[in-house]
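Render this sequence as a predicted structure.
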Amino acid sequence: MGNALEIFCDVSREKVRPYVPEELRFEVFHSLHNLSHPGIRATKRLTQDRFIWSSMLKDIAKWTRCCIPCQRFGPLPPSDGFTFLLTCIDRYTRWPEVIPVSDFSAEAVAKSFIANWISCFGVPAIITTDQGGQFQSRLIYSLKQMLGIQRIRTTSYHPSSNGMVERLHRTLKQAIRCHDTK
């Protein structure tokens, strides 16, 4: 029993949080932060929900600011010929789907939507789209009519009117940007 390990926990909240010794703090930060390289605030929230230590907020701010992948900016190279992503979210379940497409023409969008969303989840009653040209085409209009889909268009230059998708875009961009493409 000489090698017994004592674990101290904070029980002041609904969720029990173990106290992290100094030698393991960076490892805990690294494990959580490297999931998708969220910013300082999100990393603090992720860590505070699960663990506790005295200098946590200061440590996380310092380590996040020094994270090399988080500092990188610039366009991403195409992947297997795909340069665009079609994003769809079920508003009821909040289930997201991200579909790679080689071009953002109405035909490519329609084919991808049918093959990757409708074939898996069925025909939606309502779709919400932005004012992009590919969604204004005759093809999309005909598809919508044929399948009995009602379409809602978001307000131009007002991305928050489709906030759920815009939040997915922000998270997705951050996660993609921070992972090596080599």
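Summary. The chain is about 45% helix and 15% strand. The longest strand covers residues 84-89.
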